[in-house]
Design brief:
There is one protein chain. By secondary structure, the protein is of the alpha+beta class. The chain has a single domain, classed as Alpha-Beta Complex (Ribosomal Protein L22, Chain A). 42% of the residues lie in helices and 30% in strands. The protein contains 5 helices and 5 strands. The strands form 2 sheets. The protein has a 3-stranded antiparallel beta sheet. A two-stranded antiparallel sheet has the order 2-3. A hairpin with a 5-residue loop joins strand 2 and strand 3. Helix 3 packs antiparallel against helix 4. It is globular, with a radius of gyration of 14 Å. It starts with a strand and ends with a strand.
Length: 128
């Protein structure tokens, strides 16, 4: 496999808290899938979980290179955990179409947190 693209993003927890205060239902429905919302609801540090997922979605969009246009939806990118707890990204809709056009066969993801920030790094891979 070879790396063909990389994306990274940093999110301040305060930004997510602000969106949850101003537009709680609209923000959650627009940005997160039902699975992501349910997963975050299980965590004591819910905002931290949501911020990590937000950063991951932004990182994926950066590696795709299209931005939030042409029918791309936040929920075209879903971040879940595998049985070992590692973050896994599932793409669908327009994001999947753009990834296929670019020859992206796999996206690996890493998310980490500090006391106030979440950072995510996404790497697009293609068979050599």
């Amino acid at each position: 496999m070879k790396i063909i693209a990389h994306g990274i993003d940093l999110v301040d927890f305060g930004r997510i808290e602000e969106m949850l205060e101003k537009h709680p239902e609209r923000f959650l429905k627009r940005v997160y899938t039902k699975t992501e919302q349910a997963d975050a609801d299980k965590h004591v540090r819910r905002v931290e979980k949501l911020a990590g997922r937000f950063a991951a979605k932004e990182a994926v969009m950066k590696l795709i290179g299209t931005g939030w246009r042409d029918g791309v939806a936040w929920t075209d990118i879903e971040v879940v955990n595998d049985p070992l707890g590692r973050p896994v990204v599932n793409i669908s809709g327009k994001v999947k179409e753009f990834a296929d056009q670019k020859g992206i066969e796999q996206i690996t993801l890493s998310i980490t947190h500090t006391s106030n920030f979440a950072i995510a790094s996404a790497v697009a891979l293609q068979e050599s």
